[in-house]
Amino acid sequence: MKWRTYKDLMVWQRSMSLVDDVYILTSKLPVFEQYALSSQMRRSVVSIPSNIAEGQGRQTNKEFINFLYIANGSRCELETQLSIAVRQNYITKEQAKPVYTECQEIGKMLTKLIQSLCE
């Protein structure tokens, strides 16, 4: 393998940057959404690198793959929450676009990593 720990994985590194981006973005949401949509978006984005790390720390590729699927599910959840924030006019499409684009790229990276572990 080309990596030793989850910290060496580009998908983990980029998902950590996504955490930063989402925290900045959610700070723009209305105060009354602090414990609802904002909190949920933060939990979803934190779940992505967390599941990559937990899966890599497991003993088998099968377990790792399972956690990568969970990370991907959290990514999809975040995309949905972004769409909700836009639909509710809490953020603009332009504000959401970089985060959404990065979500898509991370999804592709997760798929490639899963495929490589299945070989």
Structure report:
It is built from four helices and no strands. It has 119 residues and is mainly alpha-helical. The protein is 76% helix and 0% strand. The longest helix has 27 residues, at 61-87. The radius of gyration is 15 Å and the shape is elongated.
Topology, element by element:
Blueprint: H1 10-26, H2 37-56, H3 61-87, H4 93-118
Helix pairs in contact: 1-2, 1-4, 2-3, 3-4
Give me a quick take on this structure.
This protein has 119 residues and is mainly α. Helices cover 76% and strands 0% of the residues.
Which structural class fits the helix and strand makeup?
mainly alpha
Give the strand content.
Answer: under 5%
What's the overall geometry? elongated
Profile the largest sheet.
none
Secondary-structure element pattern, one letter each: HHHH
Number of helices: 4
The level of helicity is over 70%
Radius of gyration of CA atoms, rounded to a whole number: 15 Å
In round numbers, the mean pLDDT is 95
Q: Unreliable runs, pLDDT <50, ≥5 residues? A: none
Distance between the ends: 12 Å
The count of β-strands is 0
List keywords for this structure.
119 residues; mainly alpha; elongated
